[in-house]
Amino acid sequence: MKPVVAIVGRPNVGKSTLFNRIIQKRLAIEESESGITRDRLYADSEWLGRPFMIVDTGGIDLDDQDVMTPHIRRQAELAVAEAAVILFVVDGRTGLTSADEDVAAILRRSEKPVILVVNKTDNLDQEKNMFDFYRLGFPETIAVSAVHGLGIGDLLDRMVDLFEEEKADEVSDDEIMRVAFIGRPNVGKSSLINYLLGEERLIVSDIPGTTRDSIDTRIRHDDQELILIDTAGMRRRSRVEKPVERYSVMRALKSVDQADVVLLVLDATQSIAEQDQRIAGYAHDAGKAMIIVMNKWDLVEKDGKTMDRFRRRVREELSFVDYAPILFISAKTGQRVTQILDTIQQVTHQYFLRLSTAVINEVLREAVSINPPSAYKGRRLKIYYGTQTGVRPPTFVFFVNDPDLMHFSYKRFLENKIRESFGFEGTPLKILLRKRESQS
Question: How many angstroms separate the CA atoms of 403 and 380, rounded?
Fold first, then answer.
């Protein structure tokens, strides 16, 4: 496994800026408002040929009375526990504070290698504060400016020197399936991932908007490695007020773009909203495999036909993703949660399914014989042949006499015949039309 590097410190010392500088991407949200980073945010990086995983954590402030503070501290402690090296970030402009001393006490108990990173040392006046930080007793102390990139190379050199010899993860990222959990706020996405992982990996709270960044976690199931992505709850644009929340929604949509499979998590105690349809539509248009998860099923009053009624309701409200399997689960009690990983595996197989040209054309001939295309303005559509040109999602090209003669309803009929013959449960199908060149 890759060594893990945890970035910790009190709020607003520049941890997320340092994180972004090291990975050379603007992945962590950077705002002057304290407490922006709440969950652990992971990213892969490397230095001098040594790959590692770096973790950005929420600021630790033992005096803060905010309701989220104990959760944030717990997440930082978990990051420290799994780290090979800890980057303890302090603010060189303000100098040593009692909050820094509190964090230092926590880190000493970890008995992990710690590099004290004095950030915001852009000039000689700020470097004078370095002497105050030596009182914390950490032998490794490096001055940097994360904003301007000063001292970062020296920091990374010393960091990789502290790595124990470990084997890098031998699994290529190309072979790892990325699974994004999407949905409105407070539907139970984080609770669901925590149950699957069997640990308190993500902050779980009944406060909407708790998850602000998209959080990646690796898990192995039946020799298949998966990356589970917990995304920020996506509210209607008119209700997204703070700039940081706008960033979170953008980050969630980007996570959908990067995913192979999305789990649309719905609250079974609430009706399906227009925003649920928008979220599902975004994933569908992006060509992602999909599973619909009805969470909080334990809170629904049931009779013998409740599940059938809910299934019909979902199919009516989300008719454009009728290919997506529906699971009825409870992240709180664990009811049927274990079905999720098996269903992801099944959907993934369909997402990568490739058919031979011969079997595709056999289905097309049968479909046309059962239901010939109607004439349009005196002309009739002719389908010469079809072939599959790609996967993720399965993509087909039909060669016809005139693409304009293909009515959308007939195109849907052909898609349904392909699904009847080969399944493709959980994945959208992309059908492209090409005019066949005239032959001499």
Answer: 11
Model confidence pLDDT, tens digit, residues 317-343: 999 999 999 999 999 999 999 899 999
Q: In the structure encoding, which two tokens stand for residue 203, read together?
A: 């902050």
Cα–Cα distances in Å, from 245 out to 44, 151, 234, 395? 24, 32, 9, 35
Tens digit of pLDDT for each residue in 103-131? Answer: 888 888 888 899 999 998 876 555 566 77
Ordered alpha helix ranges (H), 198-298: 243-258, 274-285
Per-residue pLDDT band at 238 (split at 50, 70, 90)? very low
Asked if residue 8 lies in contact with residue 80, where contact means CB atoms within 8 angstroms, the answer is yes
Of the candidates 109, 58, 52, 59, the one whose C-alpha atom is nearest the C-alpha of residue 84 is 52
Q: Which of 125, 69, 131, 68 is nearest to 99 (CA)?
A: 69
d(CA 293, CA 263): 7
Cβ-Cβ contacts under 8 Å for 284 (sequence gap 6 or more): 290, 320, 321, 428
* Residues linked to residue 388 through DSSP beta bridges, in sequence order: 396
Q: What gap in Å lies between CA 221 and CA 196, rounded to an integer? A: 10
Say what the pTM is.
0.60
Average pLDDT rounded to a whole number, residues 204-232: 67
C-beta neighbour count of 65 within 10 angstroms: 6
Which two tokens mark 212?
């602000």
Average pLDDT over residues 227-241: 61
E strand residue ranges, 319-363: 326-328
Report residue 1 as tokens: 């496994």
> How far does the chain reach from its first CA to its final CA, in angstroms?
61
* Cβ count within 10 A of residue 246: 12
β-strands 41-47, 50-56 pairing: antiparallel
